[in-house]
Protein 1
Amino acid sequence: MVLVGVAVGGALALVAVLIPWLPSADAKEAGLVDRVYWVVTIICIAIFALVAGVSVYSVWKFRAPPDDEDDGSPIHGHTGLEVVWTAVPAALVTAISVYSGVVLTQIERTNPDRVVQVTAQQFAWSFKYNENGTEITSGTLALPVNQPVELKLNARDVIHSFWVPEWRMKKDAVPGIETNIIVTPSKLGEFTVVCTELCGLGHATMRARALVMTQDGFEEWLREQQRLAEEAGSAQGKTLFTQQCGSCHALADAGTTAETGPNLDNVLPGKDADFIRESIVNPDAEIAPGFQAGIMPPDFGQTLTSDQLDSLVEYLQQVAGRS
Amino acid sequence: VAVEIHEREYIAHGSPAPPSGLKRWTSGGWLRVLWVAPLAFLLSIVLVLGLRLALGYDTAGWDGLNPFGDTFFHFADADLQPLIVAWTVIVPLAFLAALGGFDYWAYWVSGRPTRPEDHSGHGARTWRDYFRVNTDHKVIGVQYLVTTIFFFVGAGLMAMFMRAELAKPGMQFVDNNTFNGLFSVHASLMIFLFVIPAFAGLGNYVIPLMIGAPDMAFPRLNALSYWLLPIAGFTMLSSFLIPDGGAFAAGWTNYTPLAVQQPEGNLMFQMGVQWAGASSIMTALNFLVTIITMRAPGMSFWRLPLLVWANFATSTLVVVATPFIAGSQFFILFDRVLHTNFFNAAGGGDVVSYQHIFWFYSHPAVYIMMLPGFGIASEVISVFARKPIFGYRLMALSLMAILILGFSVWAHHMFVSGMSPWLRIPMMVTTMLIAVPTGIKVFSWLATLWEGRIRFATPMLFASGFVSMFVIGGLSGIYLGAIPIDIHASDTYFVVAHIHYVLFGGSLFTIFAGIYYWFPKMTGRMYNETLGKLHFWLTFIGFNVTFFPMHWLGLQGMPRRVSDYAAEFGNLNFVITIASFFLGASTVVFVYNMAVSWIRGEPAPGNPWRALTLEWQVSSPPPIFNFDEIPQVVGSPYEYGVRGARHAVMNGDRIEATEPERAKVH
């Protein structure tokens, strides 16, 4: 029985170690979370090995031969055993609770260097920065490495949930209240913001890019965004596109790469102003092949002012004609 | 004594002559349903439209309902919500009345003569009796089980559709709206129309027999609670027929504001849940009263089989918790139809409070779906290991501990929901503590196997499969209970894996164990053992290959409830899809075995398993009032291997009982 238990436990330990169960830990908080994961894993392997050991041994040892009509031993209980298997699990789960509580306070205590307002809506994310007195809005989350940041989450329509698997951080964005996440990205690179709360037809494709940069790279990114914002007078359409449309649509001219909606570099060329306007205010009127109705918000006709709509159409028409 | 009189009068009176001529159409039954139900359907339209006209409300967009218009089937512009509410309330009530569900009460209320001695609606003589309102708990139990297996197969087919769509990344067979509808209806049917009522059905059949009672305490209420079930299932299924949007597609959790934003099909979930919930509550009350007041002489609480204990705990959970989900769905209904602001943030409502109310039912619901399974496992393991259940009293008390703790853990579903942060740690501690009574049960089952003489007939295979699979589900529950891990894993495929290990590996395996175990008792015939074992192994392997890899998918970053996913998850999803088809095929073996064995299986003896509990001491199937004479219980139901021990004395074979319980004769 002990042999079976040890064999099962050893096999499980190999499965736990050899298969990469968790994605790489790319935030300071992720390391702490992973340590809880490993503690729980060790305890679970021990418990499962015990259960498997006893059951496999019993099945092998106490199986009745065919046509055997005998009964087993009339054992009704054993107070000592029952006390042990009440007390030991109670102690184990209490230990896990205490450790989890400690880690929870650790990952939530960090004082943030920066606040980013995150707004979720069907089916896109937008990120608002307030740096050096200038407001910047982007469809991409850019963060400097190794600096704790507070993400303040809001939702415009239904509940969404912000998750970056490599950061191990998740929180719902809820209409009517503001929730928050504090996270310290610790690795450079590109990550995916995943919506994990069912939010409607476009839930599966509600994604955003998260870029973790060096301090210099981040400052340059900010300057670039500021420059774009200052150009608003001459290129208001382009700025509007980046802010409002870029989180779902790819367009090389505006530098956006999202894949939720049709890639405009493919579907836009040759279209006229009327078609573009209709596609913005009444998106389900004509659907690009491979995409579905009901995913693009139908209310841009109301949320954009008519000036904004005009300049957006003008900009897109320019791009459509140019290519 | 009362029973004996009943039985004698039943024999004396016989069934009354079946109605003939026009009376066939006006007395309770399917013919009356045929004309009353469509009438109620039209009446609902007249009522709603009439009220709107009379009160001067907008009827624009309702032209579609004008049968003389050229757009008869064009509903798209009309706000169908008031009409759907009227339909889902009035048509089911009319259906019940037409079927004869209220006849006795209506006669009594209106002062017409009732016939309490008329047992024409009690017991089944032909297969047709299973399609009538019947007050025999054994008939009702079978009705429950067959109905729930029908919905199980339907909901399982929906899962097959989903897995087909998920076989590779990108969109193949269905669009997002259909996909969201499929997983929402799949979960709702599996929970409300399969697992919960399947346990109610098994309990209905077995519990009166186990405690030595002639029937449930309220047979007519029992019949009514069964007939609410097809109504609930039909309401949920027919949501696919709602024009403009189709089935409810906000998940079985139906989180608002998405639920309010959804097309009209969402109402079918809110109303379906009301019917299913009413059915659960009625059955649970019936179980409680039956178990408390109708135990045979000598059947003290400490002599109850553990399945009866389990149903006692479950019924208490149902009665206390179910009104909360009914309330949560009514609030959503009001927000949608009456434009109230219970959960509408823009109108001052609180979005998160929906989740608190919802989970205050839906977490205990997990135990509603698991405790009866614990009971079945205890019966089966003890009988097939030929040993007394290990630590009987602690087994019973741990059920009660789960019942109490079960009410204090609901917010562990909401660790990332943005609820008050202080609530998280207490809810984590109670969640973890629930592992203690659950662990006691698992260890006690293992200890029951120890030094037994184990026979692996199909029920025992499923019961031992349950113990091992449920342990995996319980352990992944510890991961999800630890807040830091839950923050990463919640709303991902890790959760999908966890709930299927608990509800499939837990509930479904024990339902199968129970069905095979009591099949000879219910049908009077043996099932095919070879096919039963084949079914177990197909299910066991298919189940593990389908659901175990989902743990990895979730931890790696695949969220749940998605019709499309990142390309890197493609290979594993393909494997899962193949395994799930394998799993689906195993159900064919089960249904075939049940159907064919029921028709021409080998005749079953009264007690094929040599079990001690009372249901096995009578013929298979049991006599119409279960016992010729109420048995006298004299000892524990699990005394296997104890020389000379008896559980009960049957049929006049009286011994002088000295127990004080003897005073409890009813």
Note: The first strand of chain B starts at residue 632 and ends at 633.
Protein 2
Amino acid sequence: VSPVTVCVPSGRLLEGAMTALESAGYLTRDGWRSTRRLIVSCTDDAVRCLIAKPVDLLTYVEHGAADLGIAGKDMLLEQGRDVYELVDLGFGFCRGVLAFPVESAAVWERKSPLRIATKYPRIAERYFWSRGRPVEIISMNGTVELAPQVGLADGIVDLVMTGRTLTENSLVEVAELFRSTARLVVNRVSLRSRAGAVTAVVDRVRSAVEQRAVPPSA
Amino acid sequence: MLDRWQQIPSGTRDLLPLEAARVRAAIDGIMREMARWGYREVTTPTLEYLDVLVRGEGTETGDRLFKLIDRGGELLALRPEMTTSVGRLVATRMRGDPLPLRLAYAGQVFRGREAGSGLLREFPQVGCELIGARTLEADAEIVALAVEALRAAVCSPLGEGAPSVGVGDAQPSISLGHVGVLQGILAGLDLPEDEAAAIRSLLYQKDFVGIRDVLDRRHAPTKIVDALLALPTLRGATAIAEARRLVTSPAGQQVLRNLTELGEILDAHGVGDAVTIDLSIIRDFDYYTGIVFEGHTPSLGVPLLGGGRYDRLLERFGASNPATGFALRVERLLAAMPEEEDPWAPDVVVAFAGQGRDEALAYARAMRRRNLTVTVEVLGRPWDEVARDAIARGAGRAVLVRPGTAVVRTAAGAEHLTPMTDLLTGAVQRETP
């Protein structure tokens, strides 16, 4: 029988995800830091841990290459994948906001069409069209905040944690599109065909994060 | 630089002979099983008016269709599944036919999806519909047939004498739920319709975190919140007993009693061990009105089949009728099975020399009537080369036809000379059962 596979995202959620799996007893404390392997074995041979890029993570879970995954709500909203979202893990809080350069923020008040740079093209498009605002989305993979400064876009939709990046790039938030924390997601077939093993992981991780009493995103 | 002519569109597939043979064997196996249950095949056009498909499946389906514009400006679309088309057929040309109708279908269906999603945009679907019956017997028949169809597909041999296709790690199984359980839980909340719709939408997205947020905000009774959040784990022998504590409405209780009885009928059908009660099955609620089920195997992360009761689809076509059915993803079933060696080889390879052509072709024709696979040498190669190649490929025998006589080389490599008349009559006698 192949082990139950938990996919965790590299990047900003890695630390929190690994800590959650440590608290649940699947990883030895800091054991995963010493390795550069992308498949990390767990204290329990029946479980293994896979590290993937955040943008790919839901693909692994949706196709069943991983049974479970830890994903940001931002990715779930953007990608709309066919997975079960079962637990709010509480960590990795951030907000998706619409921001414009300070000096031209007034364009948001006008009715003119906008060019928006973002890593979240679907969320952004839904937001604008639901408000009847024509928009041209420029899909990017990084340093979105650069786009308005060089005339690539009027504004951006991006994640903020503290808001410092916005300030440093002379951008001002005009609207909040969504809030995000890390979520525990499960493949729809694994939840049935490997119910016992998968539910056990869900329950242990759930009670581990509840015990740490991280307040859920308010 | 890769040119377009070397590629096929993302999400489409070419099937090579072995792959095509596996798909064909699986489809034929399923269709034969359905025929044994009295389900007769219908075919419908690959193209339908967009209006038909949207009427059957709701407006949001429009986004995931391949659409075309007819010469008159009419919008057409490639069918994304076949139940709506069968529904249209039943409501139009088959209106008034004696019920119940048992119909089966097999065909290519099309879904518009983003390139790179890893999902197919064209694939074969096989399914059946039982129309005009609202009973538990009808529900049980469809679920039992789903199990037997999976078994038939798994066991269909690729050719005469070839081993059956076996499933790698486990037999496929069916998870069976009912949309009424969820409705029973939601009924206890007494929500305004827009909020109930929001919860249904979240459930359809399987967003249980979102459901908890909505219910917490409404200060919903803990018992109901617990019931909804327990849904993903309500499965197996104890599921109905647990659900009985969580579902309070009389309608919900009736659904649970029906599921218990359904389980008993499935046992009598001999498929009870392949079906698990699973109240977490979530399929499109606007479409399904009763039982819902999925088939899967542990080695594959996506369902092999899906189905359920959809009593309101036909009324959208002006012919209100209860109906239940399922559709099966053949290519997923095959993906879950082990790869196999290609068992194909001709039974007889025929070549001729001199004036032997007429007798060679008559011999080939006679053998084909005996249901043997016969190829005739078309490259004009020397006999020894033809025969060695034929035996190496696994042919039963190679035959060189000359006027009146033939050289026969057997699979063991032995050669003997035979008069054509003996060969024809002898072969006929040998191959006659």
Note: Chain B is about 40% helix and 20% strand.
